[in-house]
Amino acid sequence: MKPIKADLLILLVTIFWGSSYLFMKMGLNSISEFNLIALRFGLAFILAAFIFFRRLLQVNLETLKYAMLLGFLLFMVFTSITYGLKTTTTSNAGFLVSLTVVFVPLISAVVLKKKLETRLLFSIMLAIIGIGFLTIQLPFKVSIGDILCSAAAFFYAIHIIVTGFTAQKVDALNLGILQLGFAGLFGLIFSLIFETPTLPGSREGWFAILALAILCSALGFILQTVAQKYTSPSRTGLIFSLEPVFAAIFGYIFAQEIMSIKEYVGATLVLFSIILSTVKMKNNHLGDVKEGVIDEKYI
């Protein structure tokens, strides 16, 4: 697969995930948080496993090990988001979770013990200011939902980095399918411990769960895992920077969520920081500078 095709697949996934905040909020009107995670990823795994049954027969222990790790990271991501959506808007959630692409190079720099570039430091500063505009309400209160959605961004950054590493070592499709099963399993275990598992009691609830399971999970995470084998985590992060834009659009059209001027300023700063964290300058052969070009190592 050519990198451009991989990037287009990730763009499609980004659209699916932009809509997922609205679907999660709809689903939470019918069932509880861990229950939603269990149904979303459980149904997604069943669907994907049915389609790729023969492929799954080739799974090995190493793939299971990596899939369990990725599944746990997904569980942490969506536990944070589903609880966060109880006290924040879909638009806020979309922009805060999109900070993933600021965390990706930051975590990579810490793990590899490399000095942070000035560009990345500036993007982090912009992100922090943007978060302040988005989340701080006078008299200086921050919603717990905003904090949880920021935590989800951190967990998802780890997921992207680990996926980029593990997809090179084992069958990417099996890895993408099995991580869904493990995420659903963790959701079911926690639902049995802390909740009473149920099925959605309304048509809206079923629509939300099926959309989350089929589009946002089964197709979304499998396509992401396969596509990441042919592109880089940083390119993936750049495309994912469009996710909050789609989240805000879906929130405006279907939930009538209107952001204040302060929130628009914060959202703009966050979006700019995300793009800045993944786009950098490069020199051409004559020493001139071209602006707005993706670094060659990401192509």
UniProtKB/TrEMBL annotation:
It is found in: Cell membrane. The chain crosses the membrane at residues 7-24, 36-54, 66-85, 91-112, 119-138, 144-165, 172-194, 206-226, 238-255, 261-279. Residues 5-135, 144-278 form the EamA domain. The keyword Transmembrane applies. The lineage of its organism: Bacteria, Bacillati, Bacillota, Bacilli, Bacillales. It holds the Pfam family EamA. Keywords: Cell membrane, Membrane, Transmembrane, Transmembrane helix. Belongs to the EamA transporter family. It is a multi-pass membrane protein. GO terms for cellular component: plasma membrane. InterPro entries: Diverse_Substrate_Transporter, EamA_dom, EmrE-like. This is DMT family transporter. The keyword Transmembrane applies. SUPFAM superfamilies: Multidrug resistance efflux transporter EmrE.
